[in-house]
Design brief:
alpha/beta; Rossmann fold; seven-stranded mixed β-sheet
Length: 284
């Protein structure tokens, strides 16, 4: 399909695969994601799109909300993500591999487009949001979501270490993908993207994902695999002072007495911000 060879802002291609990280996040944040979907008051018979559906967990929850007569479609660029979604969803799930800026979907055909943690991966988020808006029927809604617009909290006892670790992660991504600090932060302007696409009745809501010990298995898996091992680790060594890197390594190591998840003062906070806009209603 046209456009599948293009690289996204963060290196995304049709062959990019971070299925594990997506599955872990969706499992960890399932209560908050389900609550957000419930707040949309979807009705049976509606037609919804999960734009950037990843491994399909949220698509399944959207499909349940519009069942039995509705339609839920997932679109993603990654072949691996779509294979994982196919494996986890019912056989009648509708999945499409496509670039979100060049989908073959019919315009003005959807009641809701849901796109979470996706637009910041795209080379031109503004053009993508305009393309998604064009898919909305009169009065349809577009939801853009982004996690971590506010700094996450992992080490309640050491705000300084959190700050330098966050700065190190950002420096790593700037260098790896050749992007500027502005390109990393402009995702915070979700409401501007909706306004520039011509949507109205803009609203925004920030949910807090908050966990304290004893941690549920899904939260433990997310923190250990996706954050401590998958986001931090050796890649951050060049961007941290030696003493900070060694401390971060100790806190991230399940075998170390200082392992963060075994501390009684561990307190995890992460935000999920949802911005919603509406297409113009049908003219009388």
């Amino acid at each position: 399909m046209t456009g599948l060879t293009a690289r996204g802002r963060l290196g995304d291609t049709a062959d990019r695969d971070y299925s594990l990280k997506l599955r872990l996040f969706n499992a960890m944040a399932e209560p908050e994601l389900r609550a957000a979907i419930a707040s949309l008051r979807l009705q049976p018979g509606m037609r919804v799109l999960d734009a950037g559906c990843g491994t399909g967990e949220t698509l399944g929850w959207l499909a349940a909300a519009v069942a039995p007569t509705g339609l839920a479609l997932g679109v993603d660029l990654s072949k691996s993500h779509l294979r994982a979604a196919h494996a986890g969803l019912s056989h009648d799930a509708l999945l499409l591999q496509a670039d979100l800026q060049k989908t073959p979907l019919t315009g003005a055909s959807l009641d809701l487009v849901w796109s979470v943690n996706t637009v910041h991966h795209l080379r031109d988020p503004q053009a993508a949001v305009r393309s998604l808006t064009a898919l909305l029927c009169p009065g349809g809604r577009l939801v853009l979501g982004q996690s971590s617009l506010l700094p996450d909290m992992y080490f309640a006892w050491d705000a300084r270490l959190e700050r330098v670790t966050t700065e190190a992660v950002r420096a790593y991504y700037r260098e790896r993908y050749g992007i500027s600090e502005h390109e990393l932060t402009n995702v915070r302007a979700l409401t501007a993207l909706l306004r520039e696409a011509g949507l109205s009745n803009i609203g925004v809501r920030t949910l807090v994902i908050e966990r304290i010990p004893p941690l549920d298995p899904c939260t433990q898996a997310w923190l250990l695999e996706a954050i401590f091992r998958g986001t931090w680790g050796e890649r951050l060594r060049p961007y941290l002072a030696p003493a900070d890197y060694e401390e971060l390594t100790r806190l991230s190591d399940p075998q170390h007495p200082q392992f963060a998840l075994h501390r009684l003062d561990f307190h995890f906070l992460q935000t999920l911000t949802l911005a919603l806009g509406e297409a113009a209603p049908a003219r009388m």
